[in-house]
TrEMBL record:
This protein's record includes keyword Lyase: yes
Keyword set, alphabetical order: Aminotransferase, Lyase, Pyridoxal phosphate, Transferase
EC numbers on record: 4.4.1.13
Family note: Belongs to the class-II pyridoxal-phosphate-dependent aminotransferase family. MalY/PatB cystathionine beta-lyase subfamily.
The protein, known as: cysteine-S-conjugate beta-lyase
InterPro entries according to UniProt: Aminotransferase_I/II_large, C-S_lyase_PatB-like, Class-II_PLP-Dep_Aminotrans, PyrdxlP-dep_Trfase, PyrdxlP-dep_Trfase_major, PyrdxlP-dep_Trfase_small
Cofactor: pyridoxal 5'-phosphate
A GO term, aspect molecular function: pyridoxal phosphate binding
Residues covered by the Aminotransferase class I/classII large domain: 41-389
Top enzyme category: lyase
Amino acid sequence: MKYDFDEVIDRRGTYSIKWDSGEQLIRKGLAVRVDDDTIPLFTADMDLACPQPVLEALRRVVDHRIFGYSDCTVVPEYYEAVISWFHRRYGWQIEKDEILYVNGTVEALQIAVEAFTQEGDGIIIQRPVYGPFSGTIDNTHRKLINNQLLEHEGYYTINYEDLEQKARDPQNKMMFLCSPHNPVGRVWTPEELRKIAGICRKNDVLLVVDEIHGDIIRKDVRFYPMAAVADTDPMIICTAVNKTFNLAGLQCSNIIIKDPELRETFRAHAGYRAPTPFAIAALIAAYQECDDWVGQMNDYIDGNIQWVLDFLKERMPKVKCARPEGTYILWMDFRGYGLPAEEIRDRIYNRANVILEAGSVFDPEYAEGYERVCLGTRRSLIQEAFERIARQF
Ligand SMILES: Cc1ncc(COP(=O)(O)O)c(C=O)c1O
């Protein structure tokens, strides 16, 4: 079936963080103005309708009219769907026993930290990176160790020498790898993945790989799951239907841990967790019946990204921005305007009335003057937002 991603769907009044939590954003200092005319292009979910088979599966759950406690461990189709998705799309073989349900990827990061490190231990991340990586480390009283990514003309690579040095410190016990990387949009190559995994294994640093954006990839790029290219167990791989099928509100992540001892320790720390009947039904439909939707969604996102890149080149050439290899995120460098970050924010958030996400959320030290935009929405809204922004510069 052909999906219409240009459809206008009003998300206001649907408990949406992106569309309904404006007042909170202002209180937290993440926005300065919110009214009926505000265009929110922050938080990484999409304004696109879910695939038809997922909607039908959810309707069947509703029509049953009872929503009692549920248990995915008695649903073979749940595991078959996860296994089938990663095998047919990426050649990655997972066994049923290796799959642990957790209600959210950020939750999984926290469980991993608490299960395998002690207070004061170092956890390596690569800034600029998804804010809750830092938040998880701070909340659990671990030490944030930054292996700063290297940037050249908006394209990011890894500083292996620095990574090796940080991994060698016996105080540093874990690494969070974002693959594909939010916000810089890199899809790491097999060589890059193997190098990272090799450094971690050599130095006994437990690798936790967040692959939640792995299915949202440009047409000419290939995503490689870490475990499919680097046979360097032990490691913890976080997968989810949340981003791929726009199901974040159902909070359905599957954590893949091949090493039995590691898996049992993780399970013991996670405690009892079970997906809702909605999440179970949605996951089975999504992973088994929605490849065509994912293909069309990726085409649409490719188009959105290309439109913004062309627009920036023509109308705002001082904004530096590389084409992301994956994710629906653009990481834009506004420093070419030579303006203080506050002034950039005032022009975008207040005068243009568009909410983005400030660079400092991803890297408080080096990303002042950067802004992240999420392009998982209808093109007409993106066009209006960028027209408004361009008028202010
Ligand atoms: C890299 C990354 N990991 C995790 C999450 C959140 O995942 P979840 O909703 O499964 O907790 C996001 C959401 O933006 C993300 O970008």
